[in-house]
Automatic annotation (TrEMBL):
GO terms for molecular function: phosphorelay response regulator activity; transcription cis-regulatory region binding. It comes from the Bacteria. Residues 2-114 form the Response regulatory domain. This is Response regulator. The modification 4-aspartylphosphate is found at residue 53. Keywords: DNA-binding, Phosphoprotein. GO terms for cellular component: cytosol; protein-DNA complex.
């Protein structure tokens, strides 16, 4: 796999290059400092995949993704801002890494890339380094040095807050340091995204009020975004 790192910050490029050096099957890594250089490197370096920052001067990551020539390299966005996740996936991103991400999170992104490249080539993808397990049944939340166990069955809805997810339960709302996208991928199909900043336990939705918001069984009100409405209705109909 040939990988292009696109980030306007040198420390971020250096860190990702060091992390990628631990991954098997990477034959070449190149870098670009901005969107314009990225598009030039796509033509000259011919990467299989791009790790792409979102906010860069002049030409941002979303513009780069929209300007890639066909057949386009696979795109993984790597950014410190979670607000761009929805447009990133609208741009057909394979994954969305929220800085600072660790080696385990990078491994999952690399496995998705390997599977997609193998599918393109008609091959069988290699087995993941960390096999996916059953949906999580409990989460560990550390606050002020104290680690609590939160049962997934007690969570009613999820809400993003910067680099955290608020776990709304009946009587509490602890903060988990993780992205909403990553957490949803670990919880199975019980939760459905209903807003760019929220997801809801489908079984607890009681009605949709006149303001277009979701009302849960205990009266909690959860926002419903316009672009998520069709998927949520389809999930409710099932």
């Amino acid at each position: 796999m040939r990988i292009l790192i696109v980030d306007d910050e040198r420390p971020a490029r250096d860190r990702l290059r060091r992390m990628l050096a631990q991954e098997p099957g990477i034959t070449a890594v190149d870098e670009a400092r901005d969107g314009i250089e990225a598009l030039e490197k796509v033509a000259s370096f011919a990467p299989d995949a791009i790790f792409l920052d979102v906010q860069m001067p002049e030409v941002g990551g979303l513009e780069v993704a929209a300007s890639l020539p066909a057949p386009a390299p696979l795109v993984v966005f790597a950014t410190a801002f979670d607000a761009y996740a929805v447009p990133a996936f609208d741009a057909n991103a394979i994954d969305y890494l929220l800085k600072p991400f660790d080696a385990a999170r990078l491994q999952r992104a690399m496995q998705r890339l390997r599977e997609r490249i193998a599918a393109r080539n008609g091959a069988t993808p290699p087995a993941p380094a960390l096999p996916p397990g059953a949906p999580l049944r409990q989460l560990l939340v550390t606050e002020r040095g104290v680690t609590r166990v939160i049962r997934v069955d007690d969570i009613q809805w999820l809400e993003t807050a910067d680099n955290y997810v608020i776990l709304h339960t009946a009587g509490d709302a602890p903060l988990l340091r993780q992205t909403l996208t990553d957490l949803l991928s670990s919880l199975g199909g019980e939760f459905v995204r209903c807003h760019r900043r929220a997801a809801v336990r489908l079984a607890l939705v009681r009605k949709i009020d006149q303001q277009g918001r979701l009302v849960l069984q205990d009266g909690a009100v959860v926002p419903l975004g316009r672009i998520f409405k069709a998927d949520l209705y389809a999930a409710l109909n099932k």
